[in-house]
Every structure is written in structure tokens, then in C-alpha cells.
Amino acid sequence: MNHEQSSRLFQQAKVAIPGGVNSPVRAFKSVGADPLFIKKSSGCHIFDEDGNSFVDYVGSWGPMIVGHCHPDVVKAVQDTMTNGASFGAPTERETILANLVIDAVPSIEMVRMVSSGTEATMSAIRLARGFTGRDKILKFSGCYHGHSDSLLVKAGSGAATFGVPDSPGVPADFAKHTLTAEYNSLDSVKNLLAENKNAVACIIVEPVAGNMGTVPACEGFLEGLREICTNEGILLIFDEVMSGFRVAYGGAQELYGITPDMTTLGKIIGGGLPVGAFGGKREIMEKLSPAGGIYQAGTLSGNPLAMSAGIATLNIIKQPGFYQKLEEKSRAVAEGIAKAAKDAGYPIYSTRVGSMFCAFFSKTPVTDWPSASQCDTKTFAKYYLAMLDEGIYLAPSQYETAFVSAAHTDTDIDKTIAAATKCFKLVA
Ligand code: KE4
């Protein structure tokens, strides 16, 4: 497959943009290749600058659940653009999208729009700290909530319960307020809380972990977090930036029947345009400026184009039968890939929640970061590049999630499974 144009453009990009990309995972570093430069898209297909076409399972990392260039979304953005891209003043569209989100997500009584998932989680944490008067937060290793300082933190070594920076530039003084537990381990949460009595403002969790590959919550884990938070006066934040409107119209909280105190959203509610949101109980949200004293703001928050793309997208996915059809496609492709791996003599550990799925290059179950981090990433990289040569565009890292859209057809799924059959034989 010819990648000349992409390579040329990558060299040019690296002069002007750090690492040649505007977000690190796009650089293909963990698969040891140059990234493809994408020229256009349609449905579930993307086309690179060398004219190669691919069945796309990245979908812009989640937003493109209805497929690329859906006519309703394109028209909504075009129509909005003719009246102005941004005013820095309230518009009716913001209330329309807010009400769509409130009607869909069980925990949300009020919602504030922002421009990224990072802004959503950063703001939700500030709101939780302001509401509770507590400084510490608790997160889980292997979960990613964007790149704000409080969240670029990993567990301290040994018995130390306080966090340490997970990136240069994050002051140790910030990191020490962030506790890190193990995903799917209520004991690790209880141990940390016992050492930080009445000091933790919130627990933030991906109710379906999608940033260490796809790792579902084990039976009782989310229920346990809900009970702990209720008993300890801690706010439970579901980070549904990825799972929101993805695994169900009401997100993972609808799927599992657990109601958090706050929810963060992004991706799908912007239909591919920059968006994030955080919402929750009215008594919490009304503490936000200008209603309350906890400050949060954004020049392009509630941007008309993003609101229009989000409204158009939600109006498509809320139609009866949308998620059933997506479930059938997702099951077919995930099970087909797992069978291809097994038949080739290279069994993988396959996970899926709705249209989020992952092939872990692991012979043992993956339920948390320690088990995920044991994966054979070298073989994954070989498989990844072989699948790319077959015209299948997966996420360029073992520790990401693949996404199925409504635009994936049986033909695309058959092509994917045939490619996996060939590629697993290559790497086995
Ligand atoms: P953004 O700031 O990238 O919009 O959202 C951050 C974020 C927050 N919470 C969850 C659960 C997320 O998955 C994300 C971002 N997801 C990654 C994909 N693993 C975005 C891809 C990237 O970083 O380029």
C-alpha cells in the first residue's frame, strides 16, 4: 500500500507541530509506523492522501457513531454556518441540546457545555471540590479523563497513598491530592479512603473503561462505588465522554442502572465538532458561576456549530431500533475477529460493551491496568500494520477501543473478518 503522500506530509508536519500531530496517539508511535494523513471520509470509510480507503473503527475516537458525513449532520452544520459560527452569546440551540441530554441521561438535571472532554472532567472535579469543601479526588489506573493536571497522576509507589505526577509539568503538590485505585477493585478504594477519611471530594470512573482497551466493570463494582460514595459523602462522577450515548442512549448509567452524582460527556454529543459537557443534580450544578460561586467559563462553550452537529446526531440515534442494529453489527465483528484469532492459533482476550470492543493480545483475562499492561504489544503492532494493509483502520494502540458505527455494513464487517483471518495467521 502506497503511503508516499502521508509520509511527505508527516515530515512537513513535524517541522511545524510537535511530533507532527495535535494529539499524541495519532502519531502511530506504539505501532512503529508513520501516521496516515486523512483526506476525506464517508459513512464508515476514510480515505488517505494516497487514495487508499479504509474501513474505519476509530471514528474520530468515538464521535462518529452515525458514520462520517451523515447528510443530516452536514446539513445542520451548513445551515448554522450561514447564520454565524459563534457569537459569545446564548443561543436557543444550547438549550435544545441541553434538554436532549437531560432527557437522555438519568443522572443529569442540569448541564454545562464546554469544548472538550478534558474541560468537562476538569470542571466537574472543581465543582465537586467546591461543593464538598474537600480537596482530594480518587481515580483508577488505566482510566483516562483528559489531560488536566489533577488527572495526569499515577499511584504513588509502595504504601504511599498520595499520587505522583504522570507527566513532567504536573507539580507534585497537585498530584498529591489525587489517589489512584485499581479498576474493578473495591478493596483498593476502601483502603485509600480509610487513609483519607472525609478528605475525598469525588471518585471519577469510566463506567466502561475505554482507555486501556475496552474493560467492562465487573459485577458489583459500580454498585459498590455508588454505595461507598453515598455512605462517605463523596460525589460519584461517571466519566461518560466515551461511553455516553455510545453503549446506550442513556450511556452506561442507563445500561447498568447506576445513578452517579455527576456525569461528563463529549464526543458523540458534538457529532464530530469540539464539545464536552458536565451535568448532574440541580443542587450541585447550581453552585456553578454565575448561579453560584464556583468559576468555570469558555469562549466557545455551546458553540452553535457544535450544538447543531450534536442535535442532529442525537436526533438520529434516539430513533427506535438504532442501538439494536448497532448491537448486531458490533457482536458480528467482535466475535468474528475473536474466532479468526482462535482459528489461527493465536487466541486473544476479546471484550465488548455495545459498539465498543477490543482484542487484547493476552492469553489471560484483562480486568484492570496490571493485567492489560501484560499484553503482547509487539505482536499487536504487527497485526495492526497487517490489518492496515488490508484496508482496516483500527486504533493505533493496544490500549484503545474500537468503535462500530451505524454506517458499517455487512460487507464492511465481512471484509474486516476476512482481513483478521489473514492477519492472525501472519502473526501467530
Ligand atoms: P478530550 O479532551 O480528548 O476531548 O477528552 C478527554 C477524555 C475524557 N474522558 C474519556 C473517557 C476519554 O476517552 C477522553 C479522550 N479519549 C481519547 C481516546 N482514548 C481521545 C483521543 C486522543 O487523546 O487524541
Overview of the structural elements:
The protein is α/β, with parallel strands linked by helices and 428 residues long. A hairpin with a 2-residue loop joins β15 and β16. Helix content is 38%, strand content 17%. It folds into two domains: 173 residues, Alpha-Beta Complex (Aspartate Aminotransferase, domain 1), CATH 3.90.1150.10; 247 residues, Aspartate Aminotransferase, domain 2 (3-Layer(aba) Sandwich). It is globular, with a radius of gyration of 21 Å. It is built from 14 helices and 18 strands. Ligand KE4 binds next to α4.
Q: Strands, helices and their partners?
A:
Elements lengths: L3 H13 L21 E5 L2 E4 L4 E4 L14 H13 L8 H13 L5 E5 L2 H16 L3 E6 L11 E2 L9 E2 L6 H4 L2 E5 L3 H9 L5 E6 L2 E2 L5 E2 L4 H12 L2 E5 L11 H6 L5 E5 L9 E5 L1 H4 L18 H14 L4 H22 L5 E5 L2 E5 L8 H4 L4 H13 L2 E2 L8 E2 L6 H18 L1
Parallel strand pairs: 3-17, 5-8, 5-9, 9-12, 12-13
Antiparallel strand pairs: 1-2, 2-3, 4-14, 6-7, 10-11, 13-14, 15-16, 16-18
The chain binds ligand KE4.
In quaternary terms, these chains amount to: single chain
Give the CA-CA distance, first to last residue.
Answer: 22 Å
CATH class of the largest domain: Alpha Beta
Pairing-aware structural class of the strands and helices? alpha/beta
Q: Estimate percent helicity.
A: 25-40%
Q: CATH superfamily of the largest domain, called what?
A: Type I PLP-dependent aspartate aminotransferase-like (Major domain)
What is the CATH third-level topology name of the largest domain? Aspartate Aminotransferase, domain 2
Strand order of the largest sheet: 4-14-13-12-9-5-8
Q: Ranges with pLDDT <50 over ≥5 residues?
A: none
Please give the largest β-sheet: 7 strands, mixed
Rg for CA atoms: 21 Å
List the total number of helices.
14
| Overall CATH architecture of the largest domain | 3-Layer(aba) Sandwich
